[in-house]
Amino acid sequence: MTSVPVPPWRAERKKAPRRSLSREAIVTAALHVVDAEGLDALSMRRVAQELDTGAASLYAHVANKEELLELLLDRIQADVTRPEPDPERWQEQIKELARQGRGALVAHRDLARAAIGQGIPFGPNALLNAEAMLAILKAGGLSDQVCAYGVDALALFITATAVEESLRSQGFGESGVTLDEQIVRIREYFGSLPPEGFPHITGMVDALMRDEGDERFEFGLDLLVSGLARHAPA
Amino acid sequence: MTSVPVPPWRAERKKAPRRSLSREAIVTAALHVVDAEGLDALSMRRVAQELDTGAASLYAHVANKEELLELLLDRIQADVTRPEPDPERWQEQIKELARQGRGALVAHRDLARAAIGQGIPFGPNALLNAEAMLAILKAGGLSDQVCAYGVDALALFITATAVEESLRSQGFGESGVTLDEQIVRIREYFGSLPPEGFPHITGMVDALMRDEGDERFEFGLDLLVSGLARHAPA
DNA sequence: ACCTGAACACCGTTCAAGT
DNA sequence: ACCTGAACACCGTTCAAGT
Fold it and tell me: Which residues constitute the signal peptide according to the record (chains A, B) (predicted)?
């Protein structure tokens, strides 16, 4: 979707009105920007530039930046494949859906940050995924209210850990510090705290800083899912 | 900390160099702005205005806006009172600490949104609260790693629900729609979805939209805490 | 050392004017 | 109907100049 050089014999016709502009094209361009440069680089002007036009042109297809972000987040959610509910395996299926939801977010830099503070997502893909989660929880025999509170808690956890993950793998800001350097730095800082005032933090530095694959995420996910399982009938 | 009229006989002396500017004063002014107008209104210029000066003056005391937000979030955390760990009551104590942490955030409009994407908080109050949580979990007999992952999951949940709550009680944007109107609107939208494609969402509208005090938060909190309790030795 | 005004390089959004 | 350039009202941050 990036621009292609115009054939010279057509180049005279300045400002050929490309009919290429559309919601879809704008969302795609925005996703390119996020993937290449991160969420902070995503401005209406930057997206327009990607489409060889001006920021004002976007407003014919998109109400404002907030709507563009909504569309972007919903586009991302299309990557999730939803399993057919199997009552015997509902806990594993919920976890799989959660992993995919998180995966879809972390695959796009720090886009997850935009998901926070967006409120309930109403996009078509978001709704399909929510429906799928409810179906699985319901297949697990949970009550309507437990299902409802459950998807909510899971969604919050997925987004929050995705944000955490994106911060972790980005270092802090653009300060040029690598991830490893940053971790060493934090370890040292925690270690340097007065042990009288902070006996547990200083005593648990290793445990606090542990970063082994998705262990941290899986731990929290299991907390939630096995907690939900306790609400299922015996 | 708001300005007071200068006595007329001193007013001639224009631009009397008030020595009032300080980190503390800046954070206090910023908090006033957030409380009165919300996070989106918080700009360096707006904070400076509150202190009757220009934005540039703030940079002598604060590195940048990000640091100001860190200081703001840490200031808020000072409102939490930390209980003496009681091994018998560790689950209730953790919950109480979590409720306070969330309360401190939601007491300041949508400030919670700034806590997301801030990474691990290193402010003195944040560290004291983390230490207190670790102490209580440890008193509950949990292993170092469970304590570490536990505080992390709890912190994410507290912030995420605080953001959710602030969005909920703010309506959507400044569109002038009241909370009740917004809820009715969402209910209608959910209800209007095709039942064939969305049998669970349409069938659980009441459960999904239920908003009774802190029930939603307490449900998720209990999921996490009772999940942690399962990791405690019998 | 602290404070300031002015400037720089950006934003999101609007709007009259074009096709 | 769609697109555009220019403008409006903002941002965060820097910097030379003041005290």
Answer: none
